[in-house]
């Protein structure tokens, strides 16, 4: 039986390296791709996996090179941000080639764009495409699905991220700068997606002990406003990020720190679901948000390659593609985080 080939676009970035290492630990074969041939060769030498790793140079502004990557690979994991710049051409190439696709995007406009522009093509070519399957966005989406499982009518879901010790990569820094300067935010309320200016505010979210209440930035521009309503019957989705995420010394001057230091983050993702007469909640707690995101994308990619993915093709939300709680439990067993669910009344 021929083994699947997993392509990683932006493989030599921090997330790409984590994804490559995890796939190799699972005895998979890799195609490292990106625009910098020298960086690709250096990473292949560093991984030292012989014929299990090959490289291919492809820039986002070279459609022919992107098509070659997508045609060669069975599944692509897109790790090269910011996705406002890199996302559309890579996603389009994957859809056209019928290559299964997962990305690490945070940006809601990019995620919406993949749904809007690639859906018909992916269904025609047989590709499964899951944008936003990373720490921010993807894990929040899955946790919302796990918390809301079996509930038919939900008034409001709040997804709150508390992060301490975050050290931004160059791509993450560029993404954050873009997102917080953005004037047209996507929000979900009254059962519909809206685009327009939203005045940022501070809020307080009551994280469970031992974390306790934290000051939050709201709304946080993440992709759950696009993805959660696709698989959860909810009328409003609110997103929040702790102000502590950006308060760590050197958070924005950390592009070149050692990977072990970058791993030194503590995080909690909490979800509250509220409906008339009841509610439910859940949380993910762990360390190293980068590894948690990498594990999520790899788990999805391997399941799809092995025929354990969704039963339909096209562009899907994470919680639409996979049964949320079992998927999160598998990540918990791999040490990504600890999952806690608290069911309410109703």
Main attributes?
single chain; 346 residues; alpha/beta; 7-stranded parallel β-sheet; 7-stranded mixed β-sheet; 12 helices; 16 strands; 38% helix; globular
Walk me through the topology:
Elements (H helix, E strand, L loop, with lengths): L4 E5 L4 H12 L3 E6 L2 H11 L5 E5 L5 H10 L2 E4 L4 H15 L2 E4 L4 H18 L2 E3 L4 H14 L7 E9 L5 H12 L3 E5 L2 E5 L4 E6 L6 E6 L5 H4 L9 E6 L16 H4 L3 E10 L2 E10 L1 H17 L8 E2 L2 H4 L2 H10 L4 E5 L4
Parallel strand pairs: 1-2, 1-4, 2-3, 4-5, 5-6, 6-15, 7-12
Antiparallel strand pairs: 7-13, 8-9, 10-11, 11-12, 13-14, 14-16
Helix pairs in contact: 1-10, 3-4, 4-5, 6-10, 6-12, 10-12
Structural class: alpha/beta
Say what oligomer this is: single chain
SSE arrangement, N to C: EHEHEHEHEHEHEHEEEEHEHEEHEHHE
The low-confidence runs, each spanning 5 or more residues with pLDDT under 50, are none
| Biggest sheet details | 7 strands, parallel
For the biggest β-sheet, the strand order reads: 3-2-1-4-5-6-15
Gyration radius from CA atoms, angstroms: 19 Å
Mean pLDDT across the residues is: 94
Report the end-to-end length measured between terminal Cα atoms. Answer: 49 Å
Strand content: 25-35%
The level of helicity is: 25-40%
Tally of strands: 16
Number of helices: 12
Q: Based on CA inertia axes, which overall geometry fits?
A: globular
Please, could you describe this protein's structure?
The protein is globular and about 55 Å long. Strands 3-2-1-4-5-6-15 form a seven-stranded parallel β-sheet, with helices on both faces. It has helices spanning 14-25, 37-47, 63-72, 83-97, 108-125, 135-148, 170-181, 224-227, 259-262, 289-305, 318-321, 324-333; strands at residues 5-9, 29-34, 53-57, 75-78, 100-103, 128-130, 156-164, 185-189, 192-196, 201-206, 213-218, 237-242, 266-275, 278-287, 314-315, 338-342. The longest helix is centred in the middle third of the chain and has 18 residues, at 108-125. The chain has twelve helices and 16 strands. It has 346 residues and is of the alpha/beta class. The model has no long low-confidence stretch (mean pLDDT 94). Helix content is 38%, strand content 26%. 51% of the residues are buried.
């Amino acid at each position: 039986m021929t083994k699947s080939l997993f392509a990683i676009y932006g493989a030599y970035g921090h997330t790409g390296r984590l994804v490559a290492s995890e796939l190799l630990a699972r005895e998979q074969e890799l195609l490292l791709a990106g625009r910098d041939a020298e960086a690709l060769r250096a990473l292949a030498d560093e991984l030292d996996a012989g014929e299990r790793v090959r490289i291919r140079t492809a820039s986002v502004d070279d459609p022919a090179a992107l098509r070659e990557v997508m045609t060669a690979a069975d599944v692509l994991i897109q790790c090269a941000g910011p996705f406002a710049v890199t996302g559309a051409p890579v996603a389009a190439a994957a859809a056209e080639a019928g290559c299964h696709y997962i990305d690490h995007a945070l940006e809601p406009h990019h995620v919406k764009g993949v749904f809007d522009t690639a859906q018909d093509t992916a269904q025609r070519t047989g590709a499964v495409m899951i944008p936003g399957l990373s720490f921010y966005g993807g894990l929040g989406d899955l946790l919302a699905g796990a918390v809301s499982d079996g509930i038919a009518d939900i008034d409001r879901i709040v997804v709150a991220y508390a992060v301490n010790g975050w050290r931004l990569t160059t791509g993450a820094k560029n993404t954050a700068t873009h997102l917080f300067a953005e004037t047209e935010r996507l929000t979900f309320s009254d059962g519909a997606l809206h685009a327009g200016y939203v005045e940022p505010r501070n809020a307080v979210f009551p994280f469970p002990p031992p974390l306790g209440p934290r000051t939050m930035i709201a709304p946080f521009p993440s992709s759950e406003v696009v993805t959660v309503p696709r698989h959860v019957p909810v009328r409003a989705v609110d997103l929040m990020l702790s102000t502590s995420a950006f308060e760590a010394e050197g958070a924005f001057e950390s592009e070149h720190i050692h990977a072990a230091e970058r791993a030194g983050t503590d995080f909690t993702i909490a979800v509250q679901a509220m409906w008339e007469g009841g509610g439910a909640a859940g949380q993910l707690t762990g360390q190293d948000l980068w590894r948690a995101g990498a594990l999520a994308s790899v788990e999805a990619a391997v399941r799809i390659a092995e025929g354990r993915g969704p039963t339909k093709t096209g562009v899907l939300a994470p919680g639409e593609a996979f049964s949320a709680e079992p998927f999160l439990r598998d990540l918990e067993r791999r040490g990504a985080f600890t999952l806690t669910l608290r069911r309410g009344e109703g």
